């Protein structure tokens, strides 16, 4: 039988939580301890403060200590708590699927802007992960049909669960496959209004330098983009002109310093042009909008 922890009050468990996280080198130990206690004990911060001497139920205490032990191994807090906010919605996250990042919200803004006057657009999200892009687009443009593609079945399943949670699954379709390959048929040829993509773009050199909470816990399939990080986008660029309408657009997220790689790949493929580049909050060119070349 699993050993039960000794009986503790909220404040004693909080002190222990801060000690566990501090020993593990977590920088905001007190803040994270509060979040983990709120989640693990099913209480609010106010409960923790106003009922500090309340004795914690032993099952909840055991569960919370397990969450703290996971975080102490540097597992990302979002995996431990199971959620991450993105574009004002809460997304379920789990090990095996990338945690949405705040800078990726720019992709949603750009995609919605480029199709705001187009009725019933057909949108494709390539490499959907948790579904954060597809679901945010579907929520912001309710007459859109959104096809989501991922090579990972775990990602597709999670994206579907998130879509159901946010009530947008009715106008979404799910495809397991490599980039746009499943759509390269007569049926979708020239019919897609917008493609959004946050494909893996970490280069070999960056991979070596990734912090352990990313490298050891988030999936390599979602991060590594080949020697210079741009392998997947080069292959995607060669496919997009087959599926986009002439007025369509491709909105992608890129890594720091990758604009020259975008320019080189655009020039090599010959069928696309760069329409717009957006910088993230740190001034890094992060989101690129591309359009089919018509001339
Ligand atoms: C950087 S993550 C992005 C996830 C999500 N769109 C986001 O912004 O948080 C890249 C995603 O692409 C998927 N992926 C990697 N290679 C792929 C491929 N060749 N075809 C389709 N999806 C791929 C991964 O499984 C992962 O879910």
Task: Describe the structure concisely.
This protein is α/β, with parallel strands linked by helices.
The helix tally amounts to 12
Bound molecules: S-adenosylmethionine
CATH architecture of the largest domain: 3-Layer(aba) Sandwich
- Strand order across the largest sheet: 5-4-3-6-7-9-8
Task: Describe the protein.
- With 295 residues, this protein is an alpha/beta fold.
- It has two domains: 10-73; 83-292, Vaccinia Virus protein VP39 (Rossmann fold), CATH 3.40.50.
- Helices cover 40% and strands 19% of the residues.
- It contains twelve helices and nine strands.
- The chain has helices at 10-23, 29-41, 45-50, 58-72, 77-81, 105-114, 132-140, 153-165, 204-209, 212-215, 231-243, 259-269, and strands at residues 83-86, 89-92, 122-126, 145-150, 172-176, 192-197, 244-253, 272-279, 285-292.
- The strands form two sheets. The protein has a seven-stranded mixed sheet with strand order 5-4-3-6-7-9-8, sandwiched between helices. The protein has a two-stranded antiparallel sheet with strand order 1-2.
- β1 and β2 form a beta hairpin.
- The protein is elongated and about 75 Å long.
- The mean pLDDT is 96.
- Residues 98, 100, 104, 126-130, 132-133, 149-152, 155, 178-179, 198-200, 221-222, 232 line the site of S-adenosylmethionine.
SSE diagram, text form:
Elements: H1 10-23, H2 29-41, H3 45-50, H4 58-72, H5 77-81, E1 83-86, E2 89-92, H6 105-114, E3 122-126, H7 132-140, E4 145-150, H8 153-165, E5 172-176, E6 192-197, H9 204-209, H10 212-215, H11 231-243, E7 244-253, H12 259-269, E8 272-279, E9 285-292
Parallel strand pairs: 3-4, 3-6, 4-5, 6-7
Antiparallel strand pairs: 1-2, 7-9, 8-9
């Amino acid at each position: 039988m699993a050993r039960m922890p000794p009986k503790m009050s909220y404040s004693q468990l909080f002190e222990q939580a801060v000690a566990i996280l501090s020993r593990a080198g977590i920088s905001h130990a007190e803040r994270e301890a509060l979040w983990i206690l709120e989640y693990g004990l099913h209480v609010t911060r106010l409960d923790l403060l106003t009922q500090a001497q309340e004795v914690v139920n032993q099952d909840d205490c055991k569960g919370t200590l397990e969450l703290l032990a996971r975080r102490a191994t540097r597992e990302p807090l979002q995996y431990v708590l199971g959620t991450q906010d993105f574009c004002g919605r809460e997304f379920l996250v789990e090990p095996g699927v990338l945690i949405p990042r705040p800078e990726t919200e720019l992709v949603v803004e750009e995609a919605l802007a480029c199709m705001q006057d187009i009725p019933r657009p057909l949108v494709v999200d390539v490499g959907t992960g948790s579904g954060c892009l597809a679901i945010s687009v579907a929520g912001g443009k309710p007459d859109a049909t959104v096809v989501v593609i991922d090579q990972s079945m775990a990602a597709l399943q999670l994206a579907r669960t998130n879509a159901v949670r946010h009530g947008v699954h009715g106008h979404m379709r799910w495809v397991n496959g490599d980039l746009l390959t499943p759509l390269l048929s007569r049926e979708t040829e020239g019919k897609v209004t917008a493609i959004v993509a946050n494909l893996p773009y970490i280069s070999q050199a960056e991979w070596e330098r990734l912090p352990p909470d990313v490298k050891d816990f988030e999936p390599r399939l979602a991060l590594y983009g080949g020697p210079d990080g741009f392998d997947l986008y080069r292959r995607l660029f060669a496919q997009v002109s087959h599926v986009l309408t002439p007025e369509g657009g491709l909105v992608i997220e890129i890594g720091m310093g990758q604009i020259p790689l975008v320019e080189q790949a655009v020039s090599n493929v010959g069928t696309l042009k760069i329409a717009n580049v957006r910088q993230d909050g740190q001034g890094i060119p992060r989101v690129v909008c591309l359009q089919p070349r018509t001339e």
